[in-house]
Amino acid sequence: MNEKDIQTIHLPIHFNTLDEAESKQQLHFAARLALKMGISRVNFALMCNHLDSIFKSYALGRYDGLKNEKARNHERNTELARTGKLNQKKKKIGQRQGRAYERLATVPIADVFARMGKTLEVKGATISVRSKRYRCYARNGITCVRCGLEATYFAVERQGQQCTSRWHLNLYHRFANGKERMMTVDHIIPKSRGGPDNVNNMQPMCSKCNGAKGARTEEELKDGVSHAVAQARAEVQKNSLTAEIA
Predict the structure, then answer these.
(1) Helix axis angle, 20-36 relative to 227-239, nearest 10°?
(2) Where are the domains of the chain?
(3) DSSP letters of 196-233?
(4) 143 SS3 class
(5) Does residue 217 contact residue 227 with C-beta atoms inside 8 Å?
(6) How many Cβ atoms sit within 10 Å of the Cβ of residue 59?
(7) Cα(161)–Cα(211) distance, rounded to whole angstroms?
(8) Is the Cβ–Cβ distance between 197 and 227 less than 8 Å?
(9) pLDDT tens digits, residue range 148-181?
(10) pLDDT in the model for residue 6
(11) What is the dihedral of CA 18, 20, 22, 23, to 10 degrees?
């Protein structure tokens, strides 16, 4: 985080001293947010100067505790990497997160759109074509709104090689060298920022551009707001606390 980002961060969190549990919850959130933003302990202490000494001590204690927990996690991951167990763990996580798919077949885009709101039969598998994701592609197009990459086909896939996982359709662009890039649906106003989860708030975007955008709004992208500040704003909005990230 650069100096400009740090200068824009304000945590004017007001506490109800009559409700100790609620106050501690907000202090824990403030400490976690400060660590995510890369705020040093000295600067965090300055932000807490307006608090009662007991609450300030608790906030700094939570900051130290979370920082130590992060250090312990780093040490554990380093040990896993040294013993050769980390790669196996990463592979399992990758499969859970959907980065490994079993593919049944590819399907022309027009064939999928012709079955919108219905089901599609492919090699004995029945795929529902009713989700908001498919409706977004049919309504808003199959071209990434940021880089202009256009989808080539749908692929019938399921997560990993789990028999319990249902077959579904993923949209891809295929490059001339044979490599693929998945097309995704982006929420114009991110859900983490209060954006609605409907087709009116969705747009087609390739996975690379979607990852680069993160939790930022279109206005924040134009203004060059960093991922860290956008993430902090999303955290504040998610927790509905009286904090402000300028």
Answers:
(1) 170
(2) 3-89+225-245, 100-214
(3) -SSGGGEEEEEHHHHHHHTT--HHHHHHT--HHHHHHH
(4) strand
(5) no
(6) 26
(7) 25
(8) no
(9) 999 999 999 987 655 556 899 999 999 999 999 9
(10) 42
(11) 90
